[in-house]
Amino acid sequence: MPETSSAQTSAAVADPSVRLAQVCRDLAAGAGMDALLAAVQAERPDLEIRHVMTRAGWHRLGGVVDLEGNRIAHNLGEWAESESGGDIDELLFKLSDVRYFATRLNGRTHYLVAPTGSQARDFIQIEIEELQEVIDRTLTDPDWFPETLAEFVDPFEFPRLEPEPIGEPRFLFRRLTHIPDLIGSPDAGRKLVRFLDDWDRSSATESEAFCHHWVLAIREYQDRDGEGRMSAKPVSALTGRIPALPDGAVARGAKLANQIHGFDREAGYPFAWYFHMLTSREVSHKLAEAVHADLMGAYDYLPARDLRVLRDWYREPYGL
């Protein structure tokens, strides 16, 4: 029997993603992280929500405004297609006696997490975007003649303006992921599963939950058959704040022991150097090789459980 409209509405309201999307819409423009966390926590009182990290430096195409900042269109691409009728010359003619500006949406992605069990994979990850619309460029230029609508909408080279904000930033719900479901799916790569298993086997598990130190950068894509797929890669919450250990800096003996223990202190949990070696080009794989060689000799500065993980890596190296 098909679902009634009322049943479908009830199911949508019960969907945690739908409710979180509404939470974001209800927050006032310019609301900060404290307000966001409080609102999400109120929506999910069954979880202990924590903000772990924010990734910035990305943007999306915006809309169109006039010289006074009045809104002409919210979506530049759709507006250009509609106004041109598919003819770029027609669009440029229409714009010859007006001064319009293209905007962009400067974005930041906030990662909120909540542990749900004792294993590294046992957590929920919530991604929420913070978008601020800014003036990007003039829509036309006397010396610029785009040949296609695609070039008009998103030119490869065009003089950019000082990014003047148009209103306060707003929160937009992006994704809620039950990580155990992701890890148990065909989308979870063998290396990611091994990475999480290494965490559970090592002394790192004696610290806070895995999700308080790492998030998963999730990418959606289509495979060759057009099927929707996902991939995920661990990203440290300390990215950019951990010292590099390139090939030439790797020591031996007591100095090496001091290097890896110092790294762990900086990171805030044991065996951190190993997991950063697996995920960062800034930490040399020679570090693991040197530690392994030391521990096969006269030195003993790793817990037995970490040594077992390191031996397995030495027999079958991998990285993400």
Overview of this structure, please?
This protein has 320 residues and is of the alpha+beta class. The protein folds into 2 domains: 5-176, no CATH class; 188-211 and 237-320, no CATH class. Helices cover 36% and strands 25% of the residues. It contains 12 helices and 7 strands. The protein has a 5-stranded antiparallel beta sheet. Strand 3 and strand 4 (123-138) form a beta hairpin. The longest helix is centred in the last third of the chain and has 15 residues, at 253-267. The chain is elongated, with a radius of gyration of 25 Å. 24% of the residues are buried.
Helix percentage range: 25-40%
Q: Helical stretch count?
A: 12
N-C termini distance: 47 Å
What's the rounded overall pLDDT mean? 88
- Looking at the structure, what is the overall shape? elongated
| Alpha-carbon Rg, integer | 25 Å
